[in-house]
Amino acid sequence: DADVTQTPRNRITKTGKRIMLECSQTKGHDRMYWYRQDPGLGLQLIYYSFDVKDINKGEISDGYSVSRQAQAKFSLSLESAIPNQTALYFCATSDLRQPDQPQHFGDGTRLSIL
Amino acid sequence: GQQLNQSPQSMFIQEGEDVSMNCTSSSIFNTWLWYKQDPGEGPVLLIALYKAGELTSNGRLTAQFGITRKDSFLNISASIPSDVGIYFCAGQLYTGNQFYFGTGTSLTVIP
To answer: How far apart are CA B106 and CA B111, in angstroms?
Structure first.
């Protein structure tokens, strides 16, 4: 089983719909992140969480919200999806005890908004 | 946010050739990472660098932490078809801070 699991892997939906992307991890890491990737661009940080009670905005948080339901679960919501939110979304985790250690990524969710 | 400039944007090379790519920043970073992303998958860590001037290898891959701490380099020797993918650099300003990602270098290896 993958250490960082994202669901769904693919989603097509319509403008205005509410969408939730889910991420779960078995690595026991405290820190979790949501990134967005657009063609030709690097990964942009949307939100991150250092523990269950901690939520922080990243570079591009507008139009998104998150929920850290448990140490192992971090979900990303689009309250009212718009076409320019069409992108590849990645969840990542890292170990609080090793803050300079690299992040581990899930396989991504491809989201298309019509 | 921080901007990491990665170059080249794309490369088309013959199998067996060596590859060089780099990443530059306007800020000083204390950690540099190099990731590879295969189609349909998330980025996978290749090499992590923690000290200015550090040179680290992982098989045919070698990466260097620039002495100015504002850049990093990745070299791939004797490329093979499975090297195809997008290579990303990432930098961390200080321990515990978020990582910032470059725009990626797309590598195509022609058999």
So the answer is: 16
A43/B101 CB distance under 8 A: yes
| Beta carbons of A20 and A77 less than 8 angstroms apart | yes
Burial class (CB in 10 A: 0-12, 13-18, 19+), B39: exposed
Contact A100 B43 (CB under 8 A): no
- pLDDT tens digits along B58-107: 999 999 999 999 999 999 999 999 999 999 999 988 766 778 899 999 99
Q: Considering only CB atoms, which chain B residues are within 8 Å of A21?
A: none
Place of tokens 């009212």: A80
- Interface size A-B, in CB pairs within 8 Å, comes to 57
pLDDT in tens, A48-74: 998 888 999 998 999 999 999 999 999
Cβ distance of A99 and B9 shorter than 8 Å: no
Mapping DSSP to helix (H, G, I), strand (E, B) and coil, where does residue B62 land? strand
